[in-house]
Amino acid sequence: MSAINDPYFDRAPRIVIWEMTRACALACKHCRAEAVPRRHLGELTTGEAFHLVDEIARLGAPLLVLSGGDPLMRDDIYKIVEYARFRGLTVAVTPSATGRLTSDALERLYTAGAHRVALSLDAPDAQAHDAFRGVRGSYARTLAAVRSAREIGLEVQINTTISRRNNERVDEFVDLLSTLDIALWSVFFLIPVGRASLDMMLDAAETDRAFEAIYAASKRAPFGVKTTEAPAYRRFLAQRDPSLVRTAGIGDGRGFVFVSHVGEVYPSGFLPESAGNVRSTPLGTIYREHPLFVRLRRPSTFTGKCGVCSYNTICGGSRARAYATSGDPFGSDPSCSYVPERSAAHV
Length: 347
Prior knowledge:
globular; single chain; alpha/beta; 13 helices; ten-stranded mixed sheet
């Protein structure tokens, strides 16, 4: 698998997520950020945001995702999107389905230069989705926002967190999403961090069944399908057809970096191990040089079965899930059922 190692991952990330704020009007049961109603006084200022955008642009213009909380809780979001586009970045925004997500807000994001909005849908029906999100009407608002975005030409991505609440409903999701003219369905496999509890996370057998359902669904879906925090899905695909996986996988700290609302830099939002702060150290320096990030890009140094697995370049296991379940970001991912021959005697 070493032939598909990508040295570019050592130089710069492909995706930068900036958690603009932790403020949000929703009360989602799985919220990674443990969002609160009001903004934090220590959030990066507009000026600091522009400086961060400049740094990201110097990294070779990776995709910039403006997240939260709810990024619409910041009135300066439109200025920041506009500046990021001016600096040549492709920008996606992940707003929450609240009263702030109006057709006017979507129009302003599109005019400012946003390429895509990513909206969350965690059940294919209103009752289950609204219960998960903690606010009645969230489901209806989400579908209305999808339609408004498409009417103005703004691309839409749907994010779904897969947990034991919805893992048997993949086909229902695809049936619904097929009616919405979306570009991509991003399936997040739950990490027990923030408000998400361990009993919500799929075990290895449940993960395998979800992989089978997603793979089958991807063949009939009129939109792209990708997984997040489920790198073993790449191993799953490679075992069925090696031609389906030709590049090294982006993962926590490997092509991916997360900046918190106060400037802390993490390998991902689901792996809250800080490697520095953009207020004191350039983002590129942290990404390239911090020992945590450097080792995360060296899967052969991982412990347990992930370290000896022949698929660890294209997969490597979820570092966030390893950290959340064991405290060791270099340990094995418990959601993966595959046992490499070299580790069979030790697991």
